[in-house]
Write a structure and sequence with these properties.
The protein folds into two domains: 39 residues; 92 residues, Cupredoxins -  blue copper proteins (Immunoglobulin-like, Sandwich), CATH 2.60.40. The N and C termini lie far apart (70 Å). The longest helix is centred in the first third of the chain and has 31 residues. Strand 1 and strand 2 form a beta hairpin. The chain is an alpha/beta fold. The protein has a four-stranded mixed beta sheet, with no helix packed on it. It is built from two helices and nine strands; from the N terminus they run ααβββββββββ. The radius of gyration is 25 Å and the shape is globular. It binds copper (II) ion (CU). The site of copper (II) ion has 6 residues, from loops.
Length: 136
């Protein structure tokens, strides 16, 4: 009986050592990875932008991001039927009624300045536009 207890204890100990060993190894690997820092710099964190749409405008008139940065838009409509479109980036949101909200993501692939606008009726010409600036 004692032998089995000892055996059990030995296996448990080995198992625990094994686990902590794996953890230490992976931590060391990520810290020691010389490209880790560079990847971190290239991969900007997702840019989150909260935009309220109303007749006729957006609460955020300008968005600035880096090339290839992920952008997550939280879009709500406090007044009217609206959407959010960027032709050059193939972004076209769902259309929102008053009180609705959605969020969606896209990647800022092209460097430049692009207009985002509401594609409903004549909202765009009423001034329902903004600008996204994507920098190198
Ligand atoms: Cu609109």
């Amino acid at each position: 009986m004692k032998f089995f207890n000892l055996l059990f204890l030995t296996f448990t100990t080995l198992f625990l050592i094994g686990c902590s060993g794996v953890e230490t190894l992976s931590n060391t690997a990520s810290l020691a990875d010389p490209t880790g820092m560079e990847v971190g710099l290239l991969d900007e964190p997702t840019k989150e932008v909260f935009i309220d749409a109303f007749s006729y405008g957006y609460s955020v008139p300008e968005i600035k991001v880096k090339k290839n940065q992920r952008v997550r838009i939280y879009l709500s409509s406090s007044d009217g039927f609206h959407d959010f479109v960027i032709d050059e980036l193939n972004v076209a949101s769902k259309k929102l009624n008053t009180g609705e909200s959605i969020n969606f993501e896209f990647t800022a692939r092209n460097v430049g300045e692009f207009e985002y606008y509401c594609s409903i009726g004549n909202h765009r010409s009423q001034g329902m536009v903004g600008k996204i600036i994507i920098e190198e």
